[in-house]
DNA sequence: ACGAGTAACGC
DNA sequence: GCGTTACT
């Protein structure tokens, strides 16, 4: 079968070219689009007026023709006549200052036509979906939806139309996912130490290129630079090593490889590997047509002429991917080493020599590992990431190159735009939404925020046994669905709807029409919660089970961001009242549930946004609560967690609990935060795990003796200087570049500056980058600065006193709540004992 | 270039 | 009291 992966505009052919992946041959097929569909803009100016006011439009060399079309304007709830201005190619429509869009500025509706996507939309071809070619025309492959899913869909939908809509989504999600033949590439260049090679100038030789493919082609291409003796001993397990006398031949071999795979994977290939190969090749005298890389300085990404290039650096630094798909397992997600260690448990090859100094063998090993890791990032868990990409292409309707390079707001934007075009709706201009629906009616608690957010209920401090946590599964998508929230339905133009107020706001919601966002997000939510999670759990077939798992997690990525985008100015359907109404309905739901629980006699200990902590409810009380909330709010409340015990302090978002299955759950406490020194973090973990053994109040007492010993030992080691420096380091991320800290000088900035200064002294230049996103490790010291970068500090400079204080405040977060005094715990306070002589 | 709310700490 | 970070 053929799977649509991408569509590009070909200037040479004057039309779009569709790229299909043929899963039988494992090849990419370019199919020219002969449908006659052209990119277009819409304007409310009637044709005569347009011709009169903007005669240059029809004289534009890219102009094709004018048409009148009927479109639904959701903001005014009317069908309107629009003039469709068609162009011969995407470039004449948007982008350049001389484009038709610029000429018509202020009149265009479809202001975001970019690249080629309009071709796909009008043809209703969906990226990632299977097709067959009939006389060169792609026809969708019929997708069978299993009976079990059909039944679930039927039971969920309110009417026939909605059932059909849901089934359409089910076909999209259930369509087969191809195994993708692909190759990962990594290059090394001969640059001097501490100089970042420029991909534009490409001054240094390419000395190694590694590749690692899905069909077993794996190896390293090396440039011969010194005596041949070294060559004989090279053995890299799993890799074929080839030497080239001449760089040009090496590049030629690389280009042949690139050309023979439908998908090429790199890590940072957009900014380094591919532009470098491109510039280097031209520099060595290659003709452009013999280089399969398409690149220019202002290009957004490096494209390959005959394949799809995925830059995994861009994909894995995408916040949604980090947070939702991988549970935030890696933090900055900046380096291949870090991401690979987190997801694969294997990092880059460590090395001491610089790249040009390395032996052939070391260089090959180092480079090959990079290619291997790059490939493995897409291959682990049975090609999980490739499958996720295909599914998210289908949901967002974005081609593979675009999906992997853009953030969630672009995915959701594209999903909604597609829906507009499908239904014959106009895509509203951002300014019009703001103009008609701009205002908010609530006041945010946090300074600088636009509207009121979630509720956090004050915890009741103490230790509680048998605590049950109930939560709303995806609360915000649920209230968007049940509240009929959408940019066109909130503050709609109908007089009779103004009575239908969103509690806690001055907004009203349409009672006549179903909102697009509401219906789409509702369908995706129901499919995830009631269909795919369920069939994934019940499926006996491993492969099928995995596909359902991938589907539900792909849906999760979209649902989790579906509320946030409406509160973001960068989102073109930005609509503050929608975002504000969402949190308002969320607050309404949680407060209502809390009141109901109290009425039923269940003590509520704590709650945050979408969850409530209930103290020892009876089965009957619980069932009543869940049922009455489902009946009344039409949002299902379910049991999330069960604790043997939970400890609350007076602080919100701070608690410690032991789950029924024996795990400990620590939220928000400093002892868990990643900037806390490992030494304290480890001690904290020891204490919480000792506590987790406790089944009742008396066994708490027994744990305390062990805790006492742990703390005493830690203090002794600290005083004796036995704790290694790295265990004492605070680890804090620079969220801005150094120069931007102009209001204050935080400690991590100080430490970063010290390090840079030291390197300048040693090398005259700065070898590493200390920029936005870097993690800075520092030690608290006794000198005037009070802080030293980990790499510059000595063990005898450690400010033991400060560390004891940090230790105390950190541990007290747990001990306080248990009514254990840190000092008392230690009997004669070793801290005082230690501090006294020092203070004199 | 997805939201708001909370805590802690240094300046 | 504000700025910054990490967390929910």
UniProtKB/TrEMBL annotation:
Reactions the enzyme catalyzes: DNA(n) + a 2'-deoxyribonucleoside 5'-triphosphate = DNA(n+1) + diphosphate
Signal sequence segment: none
Record flagged with keyword Iron: no
DNA-directed DNA polymerase family B exonuclease domain span: 107-320
GO molecular function, one term: DNA-directed DNA polymerase activity
EC number(s) stated in the UniProt entry for this protein: 2.7.7.7
Record keywords: DNA replication, DNA-binding, DNA-directed DNA polymerase, Nucleotidyltransferase, Transferase
Domain DNA-directed DNA polymerase family B multifunctional: from-to ranges: 422-807
Top-level lineage group: Archaea
Keyword 4Fe-4S belongs to the record: no
A GO biological process held by the record: DNA-templated DNA replication
Family under the similarity heading: Belongs to the DNA polymerase type-B family.
Entry protein name: DNA polymerase
Organism: Infirmifilum lucidum
Lineage: Archaea, Thermoproteota, Thermoprotei, Thermofilales, Thermofilaceae
